[in-house]
Design a protein that fits this description.
The complex is a heterodimer of chains A (about 120) and B (about 110). Chain A is mainly β and about 120 residues long. Chain A has strands at about 5, 10-15, 20-25, 30-40, 40-50, 55, 65-70, 75-80, 90-95, 100, 105, 110, 115-120. Helix content of chain A is about 0%, strand content about 55%. In chain B, the strands form two sheets. Chain B has a five-stranded mixed beta sheet, with no helix packed on it. The chains are: A mainly beta (about 120), B mainly beta (about 110). The interface of A and B includes residues 31, 33, 93 and 113 of A.
């Protein structure tokens, strides 16, 4: 399995531009998470989906941020308009539906390599 | 909404055991303790998880106290490549903690030669 795939790996843009980050979760995973990481705030959960449905978006900073999951194999995180304070590494992660495998609870998250965003 | 607390940083000599503590005093009965680590700017990597029994795998051991309010991740023979940020989180198999996972800032472990 290729793991969680994110694109682009690096993005440099100017303030006010639209930014779209993409994620392909591991096939068969029912949960998808978007995290943002900065030096100041660490790793923050922005939103997560279950079976393509957004469950909790309370971590999304403001209306400039939006996320979609049109199907089980693709999700996007969009920032419009972007601002310098949005500069961060954005991680996507996926997970199986929680359950028992051989009597043992699973549910570990698998992270992508991240998308480093720089807004000038 | 932090559910775990960890020291900001620790260090360890190469070849010695690294013991990373985590406090999760508000853990509920359906929540597991998970440990992840992040090397440089890579995505966090799963290490181990457990409910109430001690667990061991090829990477580490996890010791959970009997009251489940704290745990310790043990890297038995730390190497320089174990230098990373280590995160302790709790995740339940139902309820709000099923999805809303809080990583926080973790513990920066530095292994020195």
């Amino acid at each position: 399995d290729a793991g969680v795939i994110q694109s682009p790996r690096h993005e440099v843009t100017e303030m006010g531009q639209e930014v779209t980050l993409r994620c392909k979760p591991i096939s068969g995973h029912d949960y998808l998470f978007w995290y943002r990481q900065t030096m100041m705030r660490g790793l923050e959960l922005l939103i997560y989906f279950n079976n393509n449905v957004p469950i909790d978006d309370s971590g999304m900073p403001e209306d400039r941020f939006s996320a979609k999951m049109p199907n089980a194999s693709f999700s996007t995180l969009k920032i419009q308009p972007s601002e310098p304070r949005d500069s961060a590494v954005y991680f996507c992660a996926s997970s199986t539906d929680v359950g028992l495998a051989g009597g043992r609870f699973t549910g570990e998250l698998f992270f992508g390599e991240g998308s480093r965003l720089t807004v000038l | 909404d932090a559910k775990t607390t960890q020291p900001t940083s620790m260090d360890c000599a190469e070849g010695r055991a690294a013991n990373l503590p985590c406090n999760h005093s508000t853990i509920s009965g359906n929540e597991y303790v998970y440990w992840y680590r992040q090397i440089h700017s890579q995505g966090p990597q799963y290490i181990i998880h457990g409910l109430k029994n001690n667990e061991t795998n090829e990477m580490a051991s996890l010791i959970i106290t009997e009251d489940r309010k704290s745990s310790t991740l043990i890297l038995p023979h730390a190497t320089l490549r174990d230098t990373a940020v280590y995160y302790c989180i709790v995740r339940g198999y139902r309820g709000s903690t099923l999805g809303r996972l809080y990583f926080g800032r973790g513990t920066q472990l530095t292994v020195w030669p």
